[in-house]
Structures are given as C-alpha cells and as structure tokens.
Automatic annotation (TrEMBL):
PANTHER family, A to Z: EG:BACN32G11.4 PROTEIN (PTHR43459:SF1), ENOYL-COA HYDRATASE (PTHR43459)
Species the sequence originates in: Rossellomorea aquimaris
Domain of life of the organism encoding this protein: Bacteria
The protein's name in its UniProt record: Enoyl-CoA hydratase
Family that this chain belongs to: Belongs to the enoyl-CoA hydratase/isomerase family.
GO molecular function: catalytic activity
Residue runs in coiled coils: none
CDD domains associated with the record: crotonase-like
Length: 264
C-alpha cells in the first residue's frame, strides 16, 4: 500500500489498481473550505496521472461524507474577485472528478449536502447507507446549486424532476434517494464498506479498459455541457449573493430559525 503525505485535509491511499481518497475535516463534517478543495484537487490530479490506478473510491472521515461548502469561510469572502477564485476552483474540481479516466465510486454515510452532494453526483457509482441524509439545499439560503449540479441532476433525473428537487431542497434518506435515482445502492447502516468492497471486486473482475473507454465517450459528448453549466452557475451564484433573500437565509441560518423570504 502507498500512502500519500502531501495533504492536510484529505487522506490518499493506493493499493494495486485501487486508490482511496477520504475527505478529512471531520470536526466540520468535511465542509469544503478553500484548503480542503485545494488538497482534494491536488489528490485527484495525482490519481488521474497514475497509470496503475483504474478505480477511485471517494469517502468522508467522521460522522458524514460532507456537509457541503463551508458557509463560515464563504461569508468571509470580501468581493467578486475572491468569490470568482473559489468558483473557478470548484469548477476545476468537478470537471477533474467527472472526467477522471478511472471508475469513480463514492460512498456516503451521514450527510451529503450542497457541494458535497455535487461531488458525489460527479462520480460514476454512488453507494449510501439507508440512514444517510442527502440534500441539494442551496434554496434554503437563497442560492442556486453549484458544482455542476444543474447538469449532473439533469443527467440522472431529467430536467423537470431536477428542477423540482432543486426548488424543494428536500432531504432524502438512502432508500428514497435510491428510488429517485440519485444513488445506485442503499445499504443498511454500517454496511457501506461491504458494498464498496463488493463493487470494487466486480470492477476488478471486469474488462476495465472497455468500461473506461465507454466513460471517455460520454465525457467527450458531455464535457462542454458541464462546463457551460459551471460557467452559468458561477455567474448566477454571484447574482444570488446580492439578493435580500440570500441575506435573510444567512441570518436565519446563523440564528437557527426559519427564513422569511420575500422574493427580492
């Protein structure tokens, strides 16, 4: 087994043809701040460039996969230039993950919300535990999804169902997420690793090069659409940050109360 020590907020292990990448900010439920995003992007590029690896497994340390973007750090952004830099990093992160020339498997336990859920959707196969909580909950603070989720949800659900899910901001547990088509497997609590190991063995016993050639074809067909979605999300998210509803959503979040939106 090879262990990479280059990163502070992710853990990267490689063994044979399998790389395991773990988000590692457990005290914040693996909320994605600039440091974690930088480490994650670096680790993804390392895996992408390793010809020995054909399967990447993405999981989260601690009580959940990821609670999403780190709201506290986002509140500290001083202007459009800093915001633009963060959004560019998110775009590169999602595009690198989506186009990864490996079979990408995401294992979810606990929460996978907002940008954390977007990362999972950019993978090829998603497993979750039945008591997991999955949410595209940007609407709760007056924002739109980012991380390419408009495209990624459209791919899984179709436009109409994706729009409804985004507008509702509903939290889905594992079995309902499976029935909706948001994940590919829902496992009993505590059985996530068993499911991951089973899927790894299935892939290792398959003609992986043929699998990855099919993935390459779909990436080639869809890459421009995903990039267009990322560009539109960047523009739209900046506009939404200026709205009264977003300011009210943030105040309500901090004060732990229901927001009172006014459509402005």
């Amino acid at each position: 087994m090879t262990v990479s020590n280059h990163y502070e907020t992710v853990k990267l292990h490689k063994e044979g043809r399998v790389a395991r990448l773990q988000l590692n900010r457990p005290k914040s439920l693996n909320a994605l701040d600039a440091g974690l995003m930088k480490d994650l992007l670096g680790a993804l590029k390392e895996v992408k460039g390793d010809p020995e690896v054909s399967i990447l497994v993405l999981t989260g340390e601690g009580k959940g996969f990821s609670s999403g973007g780190d709201i506290k750090s986002m509140l500290m952004l001083s202007g459009e230039e800093q915001f633009s830099g963060i959004m560019d990093t998110i775009s590169e992160l999602v595009m690198t993950l989506y186009s990864m020339p490996k079979v990408v498997v995401t294992g979810i336990h606990g929460a996978a919300a907002g940008l954390g859920f977007s990362l999972a959707l950019a993978s090829d196969y998603i497993l979750c535990e039945e008591d997991s909580k999955l949410a595209m909950n940007f609407i709760g603070i007056g924002l739109i999804p980012d991380g390419g989720s408009h495209f990624l949800l459209q791919e899984r659900l179709g436009t109409h169902k994706a729009k409804r899910l985004i507008w509702n901001g509903k939290v889905f547990e594992g079995q309902e997420a499976l029935m909706k088509g948001l994940v590919d497997e829902a496992l009993p609590s505590g059985k996530l690793e068993d499911g991951i190991e089973r899927y790894i063995k299935q892939c290792l016993a398959a003609p992986t090069k043929a699998m990855l050639k099919t993935k390459e074809v779909y990436v080639s067909l869809n890459k421009e659409r995903l990039q267009h979605a990322l560009d539109l999300e960047k523009e739209g998210q900046w506009l939404m940050r200026q709205t009264g509803d977003h300011q009210e959503g943030i105040r309500a979040f901090v004060e732990k109360r229901r927001p009172e939106f006014k459509g402005n």
